[in-house]
Design goal:
The complex is a heterodimer of chains A (204) and B (101).
Chain A: H1 3-23, H2 28-48, H3 52-76, H4 81-86, H5 92-110, H6 132-140, H7 145-166, H8 178-182, H9 186-189
Helix pairs in contact in A: 1-2, 2-3
Chain B: H1 4-24, H2 29-53, H3 58-88
Helix pairs in contact in B: 1-2, 2-3
The chains are: A mainly alpha (204), B mainly alpha (101).
């Protein structure tokens, strides 16, 4: 058995085990940690497939940013674990049933033999100086430059949407309302009061 | 030597685990989002496996865009989750039935 095959089975086992434990985890925090482990296993598998840039991106973006966001939300919200787990077994048969059906469908397609998947030849490994980033960037900045910029706009929309959703108006804010300031009338600010200098008995 | 079908079977197993997790963890939206992430990782592994075995970098570019969209989805999803917890004091999906759908 080759060394790369051993690596594939080790990381594959890690991935399946950690994701299975994630699904049945009782603690949300523990589930987040298991998701980090499964992301690391996926990234290792991608390294075996010579997708170095995406593997590093997965660790940096997902483990570094997205999972920190998850942990932040988990610790910020005070979630009652006991009520969450009360209905755990209600949907368990349905979940297992759906999974078995989907696995059977995929196995049916993969074992049909019409794709000839077993005989797909493994390509030769690239030489040591090969740069995955250069090849990816060459395609990304020429053929796919328009979708690339659209992705940037999508991230901008996500930033604005997330801030707008969660932002709370601060009551102590001293922010000025420009349109209100411009359209102000003299009568809004100044009131002419007629006060007699001496105490008068009649009122107007 | 690892065949292409090995990668496909592995990602199919992870996909089904994530799918089962969505059904099992119906009450906790944070775990639902994590299961969606798991499913996306399985699908991305499929893309990269096909990209490697056909010596074509286009599959990796597609994964790049999927990662972008997934990051945006998680950010907005967690914002909605925070908002929901603020308004209802719970993140139970079954409590969110004011639309009576």
């Amino acid at each position: 058995m080759e060394f790369s095959s051993i690596l594939f089975y080790v990381f594959g086992f890690c991935l399946v085990a950690s994701s299975a434990m994630l699904v049945i985890a009782r603690n949300t925090l523990k589930a987040a940690m298991l998701l980090i482990l499964s992301f690391f296993s996926v990234a290792s598998l991608w390294l075996l497939l010579e997708a170095e840039f995406l593997a590093i991106t997965l660790i940096l973006v997902y483990v570094g940013a997205v999972m920190v966001l998850f942990l932040f939300v988990i610790k910020m919200l005070n979630i009652d674990q006991s009520t969450i787990r009360a209905k755990f077994t209600t949907y368990l048969p349905l979940g297992i049933f759906i999974s078995i059906v989907v696995i059977a469908q995929i196995a049916l397609v993969l074992s049909a033999g019409q794709f000839d998947l077993e005989n797909v030849e493994e390509p030769t490994r690239h030489v040591a100086g090969y740069s995955n980033i250069t090849e990816l960037a060459t395609d990304l900045y020429t053929t796919y430059v328009y979708p690339f910029e659209l992705a940037a706009v999508l991230l901008l929309i996500a930033i604005i949407a997330a801030i707008t959703l969660v932002h709370r108006k601060d009551s102590r804010s001293k922010k000025q309302n420009i349109s209100e300031q411009i359209s102000v009338q003299a009568s809004d600010r100044m009131r002419l009061a007629s006060i007699s200098s001496t105490k008068s008995k009649e009122t107007k | 030597m690892i065949a292409l079908s090995d990668y496909l079977i592995l990602s199919a197993i992870v996909f089904c685990i994530g799918l089962a997790g969505i059904f099992i963890n119906r009450t906790n939206i944070i775990l639902l989002l994590m299961c969606v992430e798991l499913i996306l990782a399985a699908v991305n592994t499929n893309f990269i496996a096909f990209s490697y075995y056909s010596s074509d970098v286009t599959g990796q570019i597609f994964v790049f865009f999927i990662l972008t969209v997934a990051a945006a989805e998680v950010a907005i999803g967690l914002a909605i989750l925070t908002l929901m917890y603020r308004n209802r004091g719970s993140i139970d999906v079954d409590v969110t039935n004011s639309l009576k759908g």
